[in-house]
Structure formats: C-alpha cells, structure tokens
Design a protein that fits this description.
- This protein is of the alpha/beta class.
- It has a single domain, classed as HUPs (Rossmann fold, 3-Layer(aba) Sandwich).
- The protein has 8 helices and 8 strands, in the order E-E-H-E-H-E-E-H-E-H-E-H-H-E-H-H.
- Strand 2, helix 1 and strand 3 form a beta-alpha-beta unit.
- Helix 2 packs antiparallel against helix 8.
- The longest helix has 14 residues.
- The protein is globular and about 50 Å long.
- 37% of the residues are buried.
C-alpha cells in the first residue's frame, strides 16, 4: 500500500524507455501507461513497492475503485520507502512487468513507469503535483493508501497539502481500523473528519511481501501471487526462485 517514498522525479512518460517484452497482442488490454493526457474522470493513484505484486494489492485497488467510483487506478511502483531500511529486491523493469501480468485482464487498472524517468529522489507530494499538471483539467486525483499508514502521515513532506491535490482514500484491511481520535493529535480534526468517511474496507487480510519472497526462495508457489506473475518470477529467477531445488 501507499508509502511516502522518495520517488523519482518524472519527465514526460513517453521519455521512459520500455522493453519490447511489454507489448501485448493486438486487441488485448495493455496495462502499461505511457501517457497521462488521455485520462479523464476519477483517477486512483496507488503506490507501493509491489515486490512482488499479489492478490491483496489488486483487491485493494478494486475495493477503492468500487467504493469511491473511480474510473481508473494507476499502480505506481516506487523506488524506496524512507521509513524503512533497504529498497525493493526486484528491478524496476521486473516489478512493472509483474504488475502488467497481474493487471492485463482488468481494463480499469494500469501501471505507470513514470517514477523511474530519472534517478532523482522525490516525494509523494511532488508526484501528485506532476500528475495534476499532466492529466486533463477534468480529471480528479485520488490517493489510495493503507489506513495503517495514517499514523505516520504527519511525517510526509507537506502532508497538509496532499488533500488539496488528491482526495485520500484510506483502505482498512480486514480486522483493522485506525484510531481516528488518536489521529487528531498528529493531524488535525478537520483532516481526520474528511478521511474517516472516505475510508473503504478491504475483505482480504494482510499479506506481507517479505514473507512471500521467503516462501518463494524456499521453493513454494504462494497462491497469493497470481499464476502469471509466479511463472514470470520462476522464469527470471527472482527472489531466489529455483535455488532450493
């Protein structure tokens, strides 16, 4: 779910190099989004490491879309999370390709590589400002993030400005709901009052990517990872797949 990573500065998406393996057969949905100028309506922005992408990621996006009437959800893999040590295990290319495979049958979902246009690190607020300038004027941005992250939202760069650019959609995973009263101490009552009714509830429980990587390295094919994604992981030898055989 959405962290406040220092994300890479973005240029025009068309400037991002794309490997030939990204091409889909004619007539099939191509999740890879290289231009933002044709987006209209309510657009969900969903960032995360997606390392690897799994069914709870997809369910989170679908829940936010259904609950708030979004027209499109854009998955945006991030470079790093400043609140956690280390960075993604899989490369930018591999994570984009895995997301493509997961989303290729969902026409309301796409993945953007725009964050990887340069090596400069930027923050979520910078990405949102870029997106606001890149999409048509009638497009409305919505930021999808796990509600458990609201406890650290006050540490995000210029966090008070985020709602002025994108409406926040907190997603409550199964069995979890924020302590809204406590959040008023770190945010403010007005912001919390706007966040609480915007929240949606996710039926799926918490799935941790680190545990999935460990299981893959041990030779498992976790059912939480879509079959097409798991096949790609094994072909590429990601996360130590095949090393235990």
């Amino acid at each position: 779910m959405m962290r406040d990573p220092r994300i890479n500065e973005v240029r025009k998406p068309s400037a991002v190099p794309v490997a030939g393996s990204f091409a889909s057969p004619p007539g099939e949905h191509e999740p890879l989004l290289l231009t933002l100028g044709d987006l209209h309506g309510k657009i969900g922005i969903y960032g995360g490491s997606f390392d690897p992408p799994h069914i709870a990621h997809h369910a989170c996006a679908q829940t936010a879309r259904a609950g708030r009437g979004l027209d499109t959800v854009i998955f945006m893999p991030t470079a790093a999370n400043p609140f956690k040590p280390g960075g993604p295990v899989a490369s930018q290319h591999d994570r984009i390709e895995m997301l493509r495979l997961m989303l290729r049958e969902d026409k309301a979902m796409c993945v953007s590589p725009a964050q990887f246009a340069t090596g400069r690190e930027r923050y979520t607020i910078d990405l949102l400002e870029y997106l606001r300038s890149a999409v048509p004027a009638d497009a409305r941005l919505h930021l999808i993030l796990g509600s458990d992250l609201l406890a650290e939202f006050h540490r995000w760069k210029r966090f008070r400005e985020v709602p002025s650019i994108a409406q926040i959609i907190p997603v409550n995973r199964a069995g979890f709901e924020p302590d809204w009263r406590a959040l008023e101490l770190t945010l403010d009552a007005e912001l919390v009052a706007a966040l609480q009714p915007a929240a949606v509830n996710l039926a799926a429980g918490d799935i941790r990517s680190r545990e999935l990587r460990q299981r893959i390295a041990a030779g498992e094919r976790p059912v939480e990872v879509p079959v097409a994604v798991m096949d790609y992981i094994e072909r590429q030898g990601l996360y130590g797949a095949g090393s235990s055989r």
